[in-house]
Amino acid sequence: MKSIASHWLAGISLAALALAAPLDAARPPRYGGTLRVEMSRSASVDPRSWRAGTEEAAAGARLAALLFDRLVELDDYGRIQPRLAVAWTHDPAFLRWRFTIRAGVKFSAGTPLTATEAALALRPLLAASRQLSVEGDALVIQSAVPMPDLLLELAAPPYFICRALPGGALAGTGPFLPGAPPAAAGASGAAANSSDATSRMIFRANPDAWSGRPYVDAVEVTFGVPAQRQFYDLQTGLADIVELTPDLALRAAQGGLRTWTSAPLTLYALLFDESLPAAADPRLREAFSLSLDRASMAGVLLQKQAEPASTLLPQWLSGYAFLVALETNMDRARQLRAALPANFASSAEPLRLFVSASGDLARLLADRVALDARQAGLQVKVLNRAGVPGATFSATPAPDSTAELRMVTWRYSSLLAGAELDSLAAGLGISHADAAAGANSAQLFGIERRMLGERAAVPLVVLPESTGLAARVHDWRPARWGEWRLAEAWLDAPEPPSPLSGKPAGAQP
Amino acid sequence: MNFRTKLFLIFFLTVGAAVTVMGWGVERYTRSAFEEAEAERTSALVAQFQKEFSQQGEEVVNRVENIAGADATVTMALKLAQPSADATIYVHDAIGAAQDHGLDFMEFVQYDGAIVSSAQYQARAGYKNEWLSLAQDWRSSDAFLKKEELPDGVALALTAVRTVAVGDKKLYVIGGRRLDESFLASLVMPAGMRAMLYRNLERGFIPSALSGPSGNIEQAEKFGPLIEDMQKNPRQIVETLEWSRDAADAEIFHAIPLLGRNKELLAVLLVGSPRRDLVLLLRKIQQIAVLSGAGALLIALLVTWWVSARITRPVAKLAEGARAVAAGDWEARIQPGGGGEIRQLGEAFNDMTRTLAAQRERLVQAERVAAWRELARRLAHELRNPLFPLQITVENMQRARSLSPAQFDEIFQESTQTLHAELANLNTIVGRFSDFSKMPAPQLQRINLNDAVRSAVRLFEPQFSAVGKPVITPEFYLDDALPEIDADPDLLHRALQNLVLNALDAMPAGGALKLRTSSLDKGVCIEVSDTGQGLTPEECLRLFTPYYTSKQHGTGLGLAIVQSVVSDHGGTISVSSEPGSGSTFHIELPLRPPNYPVIPGGDAPEPGSSPSGPDSGPGPEKKS
Amino acid sequence: MKRNFHRPVHATAALVLALLAALFVFPRTARADALEDAARTLAGKVAALPRLPASAALAWENRSSLSEYQSAILRRAFISALAGGLFLLVENAAVPVLRVTLSDTPAHILLIAVLQPAEEQDPVLLEIDRAAFPAGQGVSLAARIERQLLWRQPEPLLDGIEWAEGANQESSLLLLTRDSLLRARSAQDGWRVMDSAPLPDSLLLPWAREGEAGFAAVSPALPPQPKIRMNRKVCAVTLGEKLGLSCDGEAGGAKPDAVIAAPCSRENYRLLTGGGDRNEKDWIQAQESVDGEGARLTPRMEMPGPVLALTARPEGNSAIAIVRDLLTGDYEVHRITLACGN
Known about the structure:
The complex is a heterotrimer of chains A (509), B (624) and C (342).
Chain A: H1 4-18, E1 34-38, H2 55-67, E2 69-70, E3 72-74, E4 80-82, E5 85-90, E6 96-101, H3 115-122, E7 131-135, E8 138-142, H4 150-154, E9 160-161, E10 163-164, E11 170-171, E12 176-178, H5 183-186, E13 199-205, E14 218-223, H6 227-235, E15 241-244, H7 246-254, E16 258-272, H8 277-280, H9 282-291, H10 294-301, E17 307-308, H11 315-318, H12 330-338, E18 351-355, H13 360-375, E19 380-383, E20 405-411, H14 417-428, H15 441-454, E21 457-469, E22 473-474, E23 490-491
Parallel strand pairs in A: 1-14, 1-15, 18-19, 18-20
Antiparallel strand pairs in A: 2-9, 3-4, 5-6, 6-8, 7-8, 10-11, 12-13, 13-14, 15-21, 16-20, 16-21, 17-21, 22-23
Helix pairs in contact in A: 9-12, 9-13
Chain B: H1 3-69, H2 71-81, H3 93-100, E1 105-109, E2 115-118, H4 130-134, E3 144-150, E4 153-166, E5 169-178, H5 181-186, E6 194-199, E7 210-212, E8 215-216, H6 224-232, E9 237-241, E10 251-259, E11 265-274, H7 276-326, H8 340-400, H9 405-437, E12 445-447, H10 449-458, H11 461-464, E13 472-477, E14 485-487, H12 489-506, E15 511-519, E16 523-529, H13 537-542, H14 558-568, E17 572-577, E18 583-590, H15 613-616, H16 618-623
Chain C: E1 2-3, H1 13-47, E2 55-62, H2 68-83, E3 88-89, E4 97-104, E5 108-116, E6 124-129, E7 145-153, E8 157-165, E9 170-177, E10 180-187, E11 190-198, H3 201-204, E12 214-215, E13 227-230, E14 233-238, E15 244-246, E16 259-261, E17 268-273, E18 283-288, E19 301-302, E20 307-312, E21 319-324, E22 331-338
Parallel strand pairs in C: 2-3, 2-4
Antiparallel strand pairs in C: 4-5, 5-6, 7-22, 8-9, 9-10, 10-11, 12-13, 13-14, 14-15, 16-17, 17-18, 18-19, 20-21, 21-22
Helix pairs in contact in C: 1-2
C-alpha cells in the first residue's frame, strides 16, 4: 500500500496531467472573480452545532474556515503554523499552555480580537476539564491531565475563534465576510436549513483580513446540488469547485478534468447490536468478519477510489494501520459458521443489516457485505435506511430498525488519532475500556487492537473525498485531511462571454 | 286409471320428454359450440401472446446486440483483453448501458466469468458468473428466461447474451428485461383478458409471487392447486376458476409454463379470459329453451287432451258395449265412429257379439241336449236297476201260475214283496230327483257357523265308534272368534251333512275327520278334511258335476247339492286332494250373501236361484 | 521549552536573527542527531523485546514522508545501534524478519518494528515529533539550465535577488519573507543571514500572498537600487552597513521579466516557467529573447515544486528562483544559470 502522502500526490499529479500548461511566463496571481462552489448538503457554520463524525460537521468546517480562524494551523508538512496565536509556551508537564494572541486583528464586526474573545469562543468547544484564563494578550489553557497534543487538537476544525453577535450571528476574523442575502442568514449559524432544495450562500472577500485579502472577490456556495449535477456543472463551466463521488471522480479523471483527492476521510463500518443473540455470538462476528472481501469492495466496487480498512483509524491518522491485516478467510468463516446454531443467519432468520448511513455507496457496500457473508453461509437481509435526510447515523438505532448489524459511516475530523478514536467510539456507541486521548501511538495501537478483537465494529473501507476543479482555478492547496483553504486560490481572467455559456464566468472586473 | 288418462299421460310424457331432450340437446350443442369458439378465441390470443412474448425476447436480443456492438462496449472489450487490464473502471458502465437501451438488467462479464459491471446488482462486481462460460456459442442464441439475483430478492428476467470477442478473450454482454407487472402491462391484450405472472422462485404456492399488470391479485390462493399442478408437471393447462358462486364470475385461465435454460419452471404465465359473456349468453339460451319447452308442453297438454279424448271415445263405447255383453246383453251393439282401425275395431266388436250370441245359442242348445242325454242315461241307468227285478218277478209270477197254488202262493208272496221293495226303490230314486229340483231359496238368519258344524257332525257320532266298524276320529279346529254370518241354517246343515257323509264314505278303513273354521277378510272359511284315498285331478275336476260319483252307489247329487247351497249363499267351494293322503273341501262364505245380479233376459231374480243357475238347471230337468 | 515564530511587526531585528539562527543553522545538526537518536531508541526497544531470536533479517520500509536519504540515515543508525546490542542482523537470511517501517501521522513520524513471524509479539512503536526532522534532502543539478540550491527554510519566502554590493561587489542574497527583508552572505559553510529589516506596517497588513510580492524592476537610476513591491506599494531597499527600507509612497511596481545571458550566446535568454498550478512541480526553461519564430529553447529544468518567484540579477548572469518544495513544504532558493555544452 502506498503511503497516504503519495496517494494524495497522485491526485495532484492527475490534475497536473490534466492541465495543458500554456507556454507562458509564470503568471502572477490575479485578484477578482467569484469562485463558485457546489456542495451536496448544507451545513451550519457554527462550530458549536457540529456533531463529530458527520458529513455535516465536515461541510460546516469548510464553510467556517472562510469566515473564521483558529489559533494555530497544521500545514501539509506536519508543522504547526501560527494563525491567531503568534507564539505559545507550555510547562514541562504540558499542563499549562499560554498562547499569545495576534495583535491588530479585528473581527468582521469591527471589534478587536483579544485573548478574552478567544477564550469566550473556545469555552463551549473545549472539554470542561480544560480551564481557560486570560493573561494580558495571552490565552491560558490549563488542565489536570497533561495536554501534549493541544496544538494539534486546536488545529482541528471545530476550534474556530468567532464572536457571537447579538441576534445569533457570528463574526470572525477570516478572509471572507458573510455576503449578500441569503448569505446573511446563512452566516448566522442557524445554517441554510433546507437540505433538498438548493440554496446559496455568498462569502465576500474581506479586504481588511489580517491574513490578507483573498484573491477572489467572493465565494458563492450552492448547497443541495446532486452529485451528478455537480459533475455536469463542472464540465460545463458552471461551477469551479465541486464534490465528486468516487465513481464521478474516476470519470472526471478519465475525462481529463482536474481533480483533487484527500486522504481517506470517511470510514464505512459495520456495527453489531450486542443485545441481539445472534449478533452477540463472537463466533458469528468472527465468521462474518472473515467472510468480507474488503479488497474487492475498495478495488472493484469503489473502483480503487477507496482503501480497504482494517482498522477504525486510517493509516494517515494513526500511522500503524498497516500493521493490522483483516484478510478474507472463507474456509475459516465457513468452519465457524458450521459451529453456530443453525438458525443463526439462516434463510428463515437472516441477519438484518440496517443501512444507517446515507447514500448509494452505503447501500452498495451493504449489498456486497450480504453477498460476501452468503458465501460463508451467513444470510443477511439488507434493510433500507428509513431515517430522515440529514441524520447520517445515530448511536442508538431507531425503534423500527432493530437489526443485528448496522452500516455506519464516520467522517474523521480530528488530527489526533487518540482523540478521534474516543470520539468515534462514543459516536458509534462502541464501548472501550481505555480512553485513547493522550495515549501515545503504542498505547493507541493496543487500544484499537482490543476494540477490533471484540468486533463490535467491523471496519470495511475508508473513502477519500474528491473534488473537481475548473481549469480557471489556480493555486488551490487544500489540506489532505479535507480543509479547503479557498483564500489561497485565484481565478483566471474571465473570458469574453461565449454565446454558449448561460452566464458570465462570474468574475468581476 | 282409464285408458284416456293413460293415453293422455303417455302422450303428454312422450311429448314432454321429447321437448326436454330436444331443449337439452340444443342447449348442450350451443354451449359446446360457444365454448369451442371461445376456446379457439382464447388459444388464438394465447398464441398471440406467445408471439408477443417471443417478440419481446427478440427485442431484448436486439438491444443486447446493440450494446454489444456499441463503440463503448467494443472499446471496453479491447481494453479488458489487454494484459493487466483494469476492469474496475467499468464498474458503473452497465447502469448507463441499461438506461440508454431501456433494459432492466445489464451485466458486462469478463472472459473468466468475473462480473465487470452489473446494473441490477452493483455489489456483485468482481463475482463470477460461472454459467456463462459453461454455455455454448452465444452468438445466435435466443432470449431465455433466467432467475436474476437482486439485492432485495430474486427477479425473473428475459435475458439475452452476446459476446464481444477480442482474440480469444470474450466480453459477455448480458441484458434482460424484468418479467414483472410492467412487462405484463406492455403486452397487448384484448379487452377483457388479463395476463398474470406467477414467479416460481420457491417450492409450493406463494400467493404473493403472483402478480398482474396492476400489482397483486385478489383471491390469489385460488390459483394454488393450478400452480402446484404445474410445478409437478410443467405443461400448458387450461382451467376454469370460480371467483364467486355466480358462474358468470368464472374465468378461464390458460396457464403457460415459462421454462429456463435448463427446462426448470421459472414462471407461469396465466392468461385469463372472463366467462361472463359466454355464461350470460348461455343463460339466455337456456331461458329461451325452458320457456319454449314449457310452451310446447302446454300446447302438447291441450292437444293430447283433445286427441286422447277423440281416440278413446270409440274405445269407451266399445268398452260400454263389452260391458253390456258381459252383463248378458247379447244384443248390445256399438256405433262404430271415426275411421281406420278404430272403426274396424267397432265393426269387429259388433261382429263378435253377433257371432257370440249365435254361438251361445247353439251352445246352450247343445248343452241342453247333452244334459238331457246325460239325465236320460242316468235315469235309464237308475230306473233299469229296479226294473230288471220287477220284470223277473213278474215273469216268475206268470210262470208260477202253472205251479201249485201253494207254490204259487209262496212265489206270489215272495214276488209281491219284491215288487213292493223295488217299487219303493223306484220311488226313492224319483224322490231324490225331485228333491234336487226342489232346492229351496235360502232363508237367511244370523247363525254361528261353529254351532252349525258341531250339530252336523253330532248326527254321525254313533257311526264313528260303532262296533264292527272302523273308527273315525273327529277333530275340530274351530275359530272361537268367528263372526256370525247370515245364512240359511237348514241348507247349511244339509250341505255340511253331505260333506261329512262324503268324508265318511272316503274312509272305509277309518281315519280322522278334521273340521276347521277360520275368519277371512270379509267372510268365513270351513274346511272338511278326510284321511281317505284322495282324489285324482280328473276326479277333482268333475267332482261337483251333478250325478257324478266315484262311488258304486249313490246318485252323485250330494256334492252338487253342496255346491248349490254354497252358491246360493254367494260363496265358493273347492277341493284339494292328493291321491293317498285324503281330500280337503274348502268353503268360503261371505258374511252376508250378495244380491243376485240381474240376469238380462233371464228369470226374475229369485232368492233361491244362484249364479250357477244354468248349471243347476239341468238337474231338475234331468231328474224329470 | 519554547518555540518562537515571527512576530509580525513588533519583533526586533535581534529577535529575528536569533530566531533564524535557531531555526536554520543550529537545528541542522540537531536534526541529524534527532534522526540518529530515534534510531538508537528504536534499537534499544527492539533489543529489549522478550523472546528475542538470536538473529534476524532486517526489512526496512519507508511509508512516511521522510526522504529516502533520511530513511537511509535512520537505517544506518539503527543497524549500528543494534549491532552493538544484543543480536546480530543477518541480511537476507531465512530467519525471523525484523520489519521496520517508517510511517507518519499528521504530526508524528512513527518508527515501527515488528518481529516476524511472531504473531503474538507486539510491535515496537516509537513516536517522534515531525518537526524535529529536517525535510527531504538531496537535489541533483542538471545541465543546460543549471540550478544551485542556495537556501531553504520552512517559512514562506516571497522572492529573492542576488545583488553585488559595495566596492568589492560582494554578492549578497536579499530574501523577502512575509514580514521582513533578510540579507545573507555566502560563508564557508553556506549562506548566513547577516541582518534583516522588518517591513513597515504599511506594507505588511494585510499580508501579501505568495507571488504577489517581490522585487520590482530595477530602476534605471544609478547606482541601481533594489526595490520591493508589496501590497501595491513600492519601497526602495537601502543597502550598506544596515539594511533599510525607504518607502516614499510610490505605488505600483511591475514584476520584471527574468532575463539572463548565456555565456555562449550573444542573445539574452528569457526565463519561463510552466506557470502551472501551485500544487504541481514546475519547471524552468530559457528562451532566446528573439522576437518572432524560431526562438531557441533550452530543455526544461524540473523544479521540486512550484516556482513562486523568478528574479534575475541586475547583471544578468544568473537569476534566483523561489521554489516551494512539494515534498517537504520548504521554501527553497535556487540560483539559475545557463551553461553551454556538457
